[in-house]
Amino acid sequence: MPKLFGNALTRQELMRRVGRISQAAGIRRTMLLDGVEKGVESIEIRSGSGFNIAVLPTRGMKVAHAEWRGAPLAWVSPSAAAHPAHLSAHDDGGGLLASFGLQDVGPSTGGRGQLPRTPAKNITADARWEGSALLLAVQGLVRETGANGEQLTLMRRIAVRAGEHKMRVVDLIENTGYVDSPFMYMYRIHVGYPALDEGAELILSARGAEPADDASEAGMNDRFRFTAPAAESVPQTFYYDAVADENRHVWAAVVNKRFNGGQGIGVYVRYHQTQFPNFIQLKRMGEGFYSAGMAPANCRAEGVEAERERGTLEYIEAGGRRHFETEIGVLTNQQQIGEFEERAARIRSL
Question: Where are the beta strands (DSSP E) in 112-150?
């Protein structure tokens, strides 16, 4: 049963207390009407716990705004929720979850692919009871085609249980064409202020790390720690050999123990290592561009040819499918942060 406002209530007990369920938790579909955001559909999910997100079907089913009890969790770029017609190939707008791919995430596509600028279709948004749980879910289909007959579809479902402070993302990617297709896929979780601030840190179990360039190599020793924004800060990127738990899950989080006078807050991700074999950290400490990126991926952002040369380029065969299940949520206090750190230490020892 959902725990709302400190009370664990059955469906009957909750419905006796409200005129309609949206009073406590629900989904609302809206259309943005002003400036470069005009024409972008936003689907807002309120969990009733204080964890709220906005899904943008017009932007490839990304999760844009996210908050925990009024505190924003994600960095949002100056372009924010701009319509694809006004969006640069090098700008995904930030947000809690941006997805890159599906055929290429290399320099020729701004390191992002077509997905962030491709509107979804067949959108559904509903709140329904499943046993004693109230499930709030959004679903949509994104289609990508290539010059050589490639046809890939992404069916995404984002679900939040009322009373919880996490979301579950389920992606089904299918090659509906008649030729094998290159397949490069990456999530980017942009953690921003105040979950990110001076003294925040990345928690991750990993065997080692590789810097992407000279600027990143200079920051290897401090890669887990975050500073205050700085004008001369240079973006840094690190590739990790992450360690999974006994269920092949990788856990990572950006935590700020100083948040709200020491209450602490964090944003975490859990994913399956067989689905995303790579973990990439994107450290952006610039003024206005202040973001801690966590990026599970099946590739690097260097393009199809670079992956092919390394022998790591994945393909989806004609008629083939790939399945992804990911959890993204909030660590709401010092106790939960401590438990996450203990898990990371245990996984590191496996």
Answer: 121-130, 133-145
**pLDDT for 110-149, tens place per residue?**
778 889 999 999 999 999 999 989 999 999 999 998 777 7
d(CA 343, CA 331): 13
Q: Return d(Cα 269, Cα 74) in angstroms, integer.
A: 13
Q: What angle do CA 295, 296, 302 make, to 5 degrees?
A: 70
The one-letter code for the residue type at 196 is L
Rounded-to-integer distance, Cα 309 and Cα 325, Å: 29
Backbone angles phi, psi at 38, to 5 degrees: -60, 130
Closest Cα partner for 101 from 315, 264, 261, 282? 315
| CA separation for the pair 224, 220 (Å, rounded) | 9
What whole-number distance in Å separates Cα of residue 150 and Cα of residue 179?
A: 6
pTM of the predicted protein model:
0.96
The domains located in the chain, with CATH, are 3-348 (2.70.98.10)
DSSP three-state, residue 114? coil
